[in-house]
Amino acid sequence: MLTEPVLTTRAEDGGNPPVLVWRAERPLRAVSSAPLGGGLGVRRWVVNATVPMSYHRDDPADHLAALAAGLGLDGPGVGLLTGVDVADVVSRTDTGVRVWATVGLGLPLWAAAPASTGGPAAPGPTPADEPATSAPADGPAGPVPAGGSGTPASTGRSVVPVPADGAAVPVQADGAAAVASPGEPVPGPGPASGAGGGPVPPEPRRVGTVNIVVYVPVRLGDAALVNAVATATEAKTQAIIELGRAGTGTPTDAVTVLCPVDGPVADYGGPRSRWGAPLARAVHAAVRAGGAADAPPWSGKVRTAEFVRTAIATRKTGR
């Protein structure tokens, strides 16, 4: 069994970024695309750590290993990084399958964007995300037309498909599709009016990361574990499209699926299998709820809070 995550913080780079910690009551089988503990194996814990948008380390596995040691975590585990405020994790449960997601969708990209448009490279996790919230899901969305565009009933935002010829994708008026062409970033909005009448400092470019942690209560075979990752990814993409976002995911998304090491083996993890179906529904609900929030990244929250405190102090002192 995987425990509910515990929220804590760690002292790092002069700040106190948050981190979520899951512990396994007994070792669990896992498959993961995380920088630490990725691949197939037995794992004892999972951490999902917030980092600032300026994160630029090229040794994320070492960073996460040191972070885990500082938290007193022993043995092999899984380490994830994100710019999302992990305090805003979204959890969903369906038929015994439990899912937790931190959702940043500032700049979803199309997985098969034309090579000529490229987009930002992603050499390992260089997160720059927006946090999710634990707001409840807004219910099932209406179907998306076969052509890949439409207005989901609960969002009112259009889905923007990638043109077949690779032409530019228009930016939506509400900023939902922050791309000028498939995979090409667009600068965010300029300064806005803030507390005290002064300008709010502009946020760094939003990119995004969706981290998904899944616990399935039965043992999955190796093929079923791999299939479960595909099922989770498909469900995530469905949620993103239903939210009206132009993309299939972000360049730094990660999925971790855990299950018991013993007991009868389930051989299938596809979206119509005994355990893949509830997994898909739970992931879809969590990503949809988190993505609907569209809140700023953790470092943006910190910068805005500091700006507001400074503005209030300036008002009181007149300086």
Any key phrases for this structure?
alpha+beta; eight-stranded mixed beta sheet; two-stranded antiparallel ribbon; 14 strands
3D structure, described in words:
This protein is α+β, with helices and mostly antiparallel strands. It is 22% helix and 23% strand. It has 4 helices and 14 strands. It has helices at residues 60-70, 222-242, 276-293, 298-317, and strands at 6-9, 18-32, 39-50, 78-82, 90-94, 97-103, 179-181, 184-185, 192-193, 199-200, 210-215, 219-220, 254-260, 265-266. Strands 1, 2, 3, 4, 5, 6, 11 and 13 form an 8-stranded mixed β-sheet that branches. A two-stranded antiparallel ribbon has the order 7-8. A two-stranded antiparallel ribbon has the order 9-10. The model is unreliable at 118-205 (pLDDT under 50).
| Structural shape | globular
- Would you tell me the overall average pLDDT? 76
Number of helices: 4
Spans of 5+ residues with little confidence (pLDDT < 50)? 118-205
How many beta-strand segments? Answer: 14
- Main sheet specs: 8 strands, mixed
Strand composition percent:
15-25%
**Order of helix and strand elements from N to C terminus:** EEEHEEEEEEEEEHEEHH
Structural class: alpha+beta
Report the radius of gyration as a whole number of Å.
20 Å
State the share of residues found in helices, binned by percent: 10-25%
Distance N to C terminus? 56 Å
